[in-house]
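Table S2 (text version). Query chain:
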Amino acid sequence: MQRNPPAAPAVRDVLKRVLQSETFARSDRARKLLGYLVEREQAGDAERLKGFTIAMDVFGKDTDFDPSTDAVVRVQAGRLRELLTQYYANEGAADPLRIDIPRGGYVPSYSRARRPAVAARDEAALGAADAGSVPSAAVAASPRPAIVIGQVRLFWTAMAAVIAMLLFIVVRMVLPAAEPGMEAAAVPNDAPLATGAITRTLPMEALPTVFVRAVPDSPQASRVAATLRMALARFDTVDLLGRDPGDAHDNADLAFAFEISEGTEPGSVNLQVINVGQNRVLLTRTLAHADLEAARLEDHVADLLSAVIPPSGVIYSFLETSAQKPALVDCLLLNDDYYLDPSASAHRAAYACLEGLVAASAKSPLVYSELASLNLEAFAHHFDYPPDASGEAAMALALRAVKMAPTSAAAHRALGYVSARTGKRAESIRWMKKAYELNTYDLGLAASYAYALIFSGDYKGGAPVMERAVEAASAHPAWWDYGLFLGKLMEGDMARAAAASDALAATKRSHYLGARLIAAKYEGDLAAAGALAAEIAESYPKFAADPGATFREANYPTDMAARLVEYLRAAGLGGAS
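Corresponding structure-token output:
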């Protein structure tokens, strides 16, 4: 519990100020989430602030919400923390009360400013006399700090107006229009973005630039650096620089260094991902000496980059709160938002953004590969935009992406996805295999390819790829474990299948419960098997009565569906057959 918690009116006042700020102006989700968290905490419902409840109350999820496969709450909470940090570093620097969402939970905490003025460096810039050395009681009684406060508030009010004007200009010049019924606006090839007195130009298709820096150089650091460079070159969502640009990088806010240094343990190596512009560490990993063996190193690098490089990773999450991001980065973030919250409005925002880039003659294969997937999503879910969505249109966009960039893993993955959803399973496998070969370091891509193989009946080919993805990833969704369970089950490796099913315990779905039931029967745990069979019968009576129907509707391979039904019946589901 916080000591001397602030009064409710003070909390409401600061919440209103934050929600009406320029920092939060473009993030409806962040405003909605922050308002909900503070209101619930102030109402005495802090114990309700759990991921599941937030998903239903704020993001409209239903009772089938699975936090292990849907990270919308965790991702949006992380973005909210970034926006709060940005707000208190700028517009909210003079606020007497600060709202924080501590990591590891969702209950807001509040802290009072140490003194009723901005930080000492800002006071010095305004000509204030050594305010940092004045005791807080004296500050409250002295007329001089009151003048400073007025100056500070006037200064930040003026700055907020300037920032608002600049952001308006940037939005009008960089982002495509997304108004219903309007044709997508063309995006200029490059757009000016102001930072202080410096004006920079960012091409609309610019991506985050990354480079590897080994300090100091050593055999271990060189080995890690070489693997990182090879891996980074495979990802479509960043541009790899061949050398460290030092301090001469034109757009340092878009530049990220993978810095390698010696660890504290003998032979170990530290890895840090750093934003060059702010010299801010975004992620840190330590590799022990044993982790530097070739095969293990590749898997560790794959795990690191799968968490850092995609639009759902830490680099793009960092860029999301920045006003200085190119149009393509903004579109990829909107696209990622859609897959976290697949609503018609989120889909339209992402589609219109990418469509604006097409109108501006975009040459990035990412634009067309993501449009292909979104077009198919519109067709499958009957969204009203674009009005001409179809499997054929999606296929044409995906083929264009592949032709534009024959070595793009993202383009081949999109073509594989469209092929699978349009019933061309053999072609889907071929394109997904090509995508995986182009980038074996993307564990999400590896899992998708493995899942496609397993559901095509190629268990021998799919199970090892899925096993590598599961074992290499420090965090992954539950469907990876389910895919591994199926692959190992069909290979006859029941021990490994049972181990994979353990990871499904947190997820209440009929087929996941069925996997755990089969594993409990195999391990001879009759009590657990009985409890699971009873739970399935109560929660999923249709599945319990005829599990084969569920598997057929989901297009399970015939031999897989038959074996699952056989094992489920033998385990007591609906009575042994």
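Notes on Table S2: The two ends are 57 Å apart (CA to CA). The longest strand covers residues 255-262.
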